[in-house]
Amino acid sequence: MPHRIVHMLRARGSGRRPVMLAIAGDSAAGKTTLTRGLVRCLGADRMTAVCVDDYHRFDRRERAGRPFTALHPDCNHVDIMEQHLQLLSLGEPILKPVYDHGTGRLVRPELVRPRDFVIVEGLLPLHTRLARACFDITVYLDPPEPLRHAWKVRRDCANRGYTPGQVRAELARREPESAAYIRPQRRWADIVVRFAPVAGRADPPDTPLSAELLLRPTIDHPELGPVLAEAAPPGGDTAMHLRLHRDTDGRPVDALHVHGYVSPEESGPVKKAIWERLAGRADLDPAALGRYGDSGASDPLAITQLLLLYHLLDADRRQQAA
Ligand SMILES: Nc1ncnc2c1ncn2[C@@H]1O[C@H](COP(=O)(O)OP(=O)(O)OP(=O)(O)O)[C@@H](O)[C@H]1O
Ligand SMILES: O=C(CO)[C@H](O)[C@H](O)COP(=O)(O)O
After folding, report:
1. Which tens digit of pLDDT belongs to each residue from 14-24?
2. Residue with CA at minimum distance from ligand 1 atom 25
3. Helices (DSSP H) in the chain: which residue ranges?
4. Which ranges carry the Phosphoribulokinase/uridine kinase domain (predicted)?
5. What residues make up the domain containing 313?
6. Considering only CA atoms, which residue is closest to atom 7 of ligand 1?
7. Ligand that lies nearest to the alpha carbon of residue 55, given by its number in the listed order
């Protein structure tokens, strides 16, 4: 059982090993946006970010003639990705392949030495049991499909040389593989994050998207109830709350909602309280959180990133105490 051996090796290893965070999701689900803020906040000298789309087996031209898309496990070196995740999780360097999204070509591999924290984002980081065994924290990004499609059209046309019609045709071609290989990874996430507009509200057009975070009991989350109650405005019209949801398997699960229209008076104390739980880390840069696109700023995104920082530092603290 190789995944059990990975669990054992990671638990037994003496000395510090990297804390591993997976961020899985479909193309243009927001993985890079979430990752970028974490790296900037914690510092690139302490955090390594790896994109597992680099393990594509075929370049864009070769893929065009195949019966599957970039989402299919057969279109990726999943076995090599697994080997590399195991090495990174034990603190060992890898020679990682590199896929250039601008040109669609596979280029010269790069040496990656894991720092204290490693974020692994991409299409299939939670696809196999062995890959999943390498992570301390797992996240799945789950925006509504129409929003993700709009993000993908905009991004692929601006940065990857596609026309809107090409992107829409590719999204349609990918749908069966999204259903078969990408979306099933949601099940393995400790935290499922959905950025979306709030239905039925007529907020000004630049209002950030709201965030809904399913906080599954597979890891220990910070106690947010009292913090939210304290920050709630008088009258009880709250823009941030914890509710009990039914997960896809019917089990109850906490869901944290942070609405895009949240006021700084309400979000400020909650951010401060989570920040204080980060053990007063003066070395973190809070200004890096909540940024998207060229100049967008979002409190729901900042709070999502703060919660992930909490988990990264908490996993690191537990590991050092063990
Ligand atoms: N929370 C958010 N609020 C507003 N826009 C967002 C948010 N998250 C992502 N976006 C926008 O969606 C687009 C796609 O995001 P991003 O590049 O982070 O996705 P990705 O999952 O890394 O994509 P891929 O895996 O295909 O490279 C970007 O234009 C980004 O600005
Ligand atoms: O799903 C994707 C993640 O970004 C890409 O589309 C995939 O990596 C292949 O890239 P492209 O076809 O744009 O060269």
Report:
1. 667 999 999 99
2. 27
3. 2-12, 31-42, 60-64, 78-89, 129-132, 145-159, 164-177, 225-231, 264-277, 299-321
4. 21-197
5. 190-322
6. 30
7. 2
User: Same domain, yes or no, for 122 and 253?
Assistant: no
Q: Which residues line ligand 2 (CB under 6 A)?
A: 27, 53, 60, 70, 101, 104, 123, 160
- Give the pTM: 0.96
Which helix (H) or strand (E) segment holds residue 63: the answer is: helix 60-64
User: Which tens digit of pLDDT belongs to each residue from 103-141?
Assistant: 999 999 999 999 999 999 999 999 999 999 999 999 999
Instruction: Output the CA torsion 250→255→259→264 (10° steps).
Output: 180
Q: Rounded distance, CA 84 to CA 114, Å?
A: 11
Q: Are both 195 and 267 inside the same structural domain?
A: yes
Residue 35 Cβ inside 6 Å of ligand 1? The answer reads no
Do the domain assignments include residue 227? yes
Q: Does 224 share its domain with 106?
A: no
Residue 192, token pair as written in the block: 């499922």
Give the torsion through C-alpha atoms of 163, 33, 116, 109, to 10 deg.
10
